[in-house]
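Appendix C reproduces, verbatim, an entry submitted by the partner laboratory led by Prof. M.T., so that reviewers can inspect both the input and the predicted structure.
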Amino acid sequence: MKEQPRILIVDDDLSNIKILQHILEDSYRLIVATNGADALKLVSRKTPDMILLDIIMPEMDGFEVCRRLKKNKKHKNIPVLFITSKSDVEDEALGLKVGAVDYITKPINPPVVLARIRNHMLLKKQHDQLKRSITLSEKQLVDYARDLTELHKAKKKQQVELDLLLEKEKYRRNLEAVFESVNDALITIDPELNITEANRAAYDVCCLNPDKFLGNKITEKPASECRCLAILLQTMESGKLVHDYKVECSQKGCKDKTAILNTSILSDKNKNSMGGLLVIRDVTRLTNLEKQVEKQHKFHDIIGRNERMLEIFELLDNLSDTDTTVLIRGESGTGKEMVARALHYQGVRASKPIMTVNCSALAEELLESELFGHVKGSFTGATRD
């Protein structure tokens, strides 16, 4: 089995060393030094194929370490890559002047660092082969040229892959910027109904806590208690999209809001489901303005402008979302049934049917049975439950 190239990491910050180890440990043998003096000793004992060198270190900085390496005939051809937080052009120019082959600024971008290291490893390999080629025969030179061509192809392929990776990262950032800039709340789930993303507006509109919602299933608490997410669940189960569905939202620690919901099913180019999208638009202010206008002259199908009717409208509005029994009294023809229907259709049960019963048309002894049912034998003619 071919031995992996050895890389020396020199940095006085252990957290940076751990990051680089995590990126490189699968492809390279790694040795570590936390200062310049130890690094020079390690190079003498275990000659590395490459050195990743920080600049800002106590006693001996990275520039001085690089100068000493390049003065040593045995070590001067070891590629040195500066990885540092110093981003000034003058520092980069100095780093290249003292002999470094590359200059990478922190914070570390793993794909870019890995690609640059691979490229410089390839260049070192080419350099080493060129040195050996001086003693090769003509046939060996032909073989070498073929290998060199393959190496160039590999390098070109790696560059293409790196360009694609950077392009994908650019698109991802653009998409993330759009996602965060939308004023409507956006919530996405995967095919397993796990909440995968929620933009900043979702936390503002819905008062969601990202630590409690992201990664959780919408079928489990606390997500299952959200009426808006219940609509998205219906879409995922039935496949039917929801357009401009109006709901009243109430969350703990959050003011009651009125929202318009729209749902979509996310799919790839092959129309395979990738999850769902919920769009929530806060229309509380608009709804309140509409209510203020309607409140002046109308409540459901009841119309009136005098002071007494306006008082009744206000009372009905306060009762519409109250879960309790309401007794409506009045002379025949004064609109008791209209009031009952207004309370129903303006309240939380608006999507449910309303049943009207004329109690005066029922015999007194049968009234309870007709309204609430009876058991077999409770009166003459009650032959079954």
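The chain is about 45% helix and 15% strand. Additional entries are available on request from the coordinating office.
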